[in-house]
Fold:
Amino acid sequence: MPTARRATLASVALDPAQDTPLYLQLFEEVRDQILDGRLKPRQRLPSTRALADDLEVSRTTTLSAYEQLMSEGYIEGRTGSGAFVAAILPEDLLLVRLPSAGDQSETPNRAATAGAGASRTQRKDRGVDVRPFDTSAQDARLFPFAEWSRLLGKTWRAPKPELLHYGELFGYPLLRRAIAEHLSELRGVDCAEQQVVITASAAQSIAVIARTLLGAGGTIHIEDPGYPTTYRALEDLGAAVSPIAVDAQGFVPPGIAARPAPQVAVVTPSRQYPLGMTMPLARRLELLKWAEDTGAWVIEDDYDSEYRYVGRPLSALMSLDRSEQVIYLGSFSKTMFKSLRLGFLILPHALIGPVEDTLQALGARASLIAQPALGEFITSGQFAAHIRRMRRVYSERQKVLQSVLDEHFGGLLEAQKQSAGMH
Structure:
């Protein structure tokens, strides 16, 4: 076995004057070097102590950066040997940022699988009932309703004239700007206010994109098993749905065929629903390359990305996409409360006009009632603070659950600790 080369990381330059923390600057620099191919698979990295000396920073900075790199799958640790660039990074997937000239795609089998069919049995509305182990049930008792009420009152005691009409088609500008800034800071998504669309729900987001992209036919691939709401939304549209069985790494990109039919894939890379796995970097790059080679679109449902208990949340799939074929989908039902009924899309630039045409035809707009307050809630930092609080709460509850399962069910079942989400 060849001796692993040690990386010097001599080209790293950190700037204390930036608003971005030093450990995050270091994380981003090393990640970029891995994706650019400057750091190769299995290449040894300097120790955190040596790197701290080289860069003249505290060891806490290098430890935090390495922890984040390791949690996202860019590097791996070996007992007694140090840190190495992850071996699962295939060289032929490191260039997925190159623009694609291909516009051919396949038409997969339209037959529904057992998993997708089974999801249709989950339609019954449970109302306000909350069952144990329901992964979609947030603890709304801990939400800062006093501050939320203040922001709503501030908006509606003397509402601005534009709030009394339909408003802009893509939503309230303050909220769209706040979402763009929030995603840039916490999810690595480089987007502008003009790319943000406010919707009434994740289901409406899926429906708008499906109508826009598949109006003339084509196939939409979904995970099997997957999120029932997605399946129902597409079923109601009459879309040609192709369920694809997930494996231990999540969604498996379909094979490439030479048929010019539009393709869309809906994936949950941060936290697969309902199985709970996180899509590793190699599979993400494989998915992006599939989209690039086929001209397909990927809808990234960033389900459960906010609640990660080790390090910062994983980088979004859209942040790795250089050919602008990923559409980002999010909502506030898990981070705030379900009755808020607000979601959002981040569009590639090429889809801004087509989505605008779809919304004009549908006459669809999300309610303006809560949008100004939510914009201020995010901009003020209260939204991020709430997520941090809930992350700590859910992490502690997970530890308690793990402990009692081990105590009372040891030998009967294996409860695997999850590094993120509500599973």
Observations:
- The CA atoms of residues 15 and 47 lie 21 Å apart.
- Confidence is low (pLDDT under 50) at residues 1-7, 89-126.
- The first helix runs from residue 22 to 36.
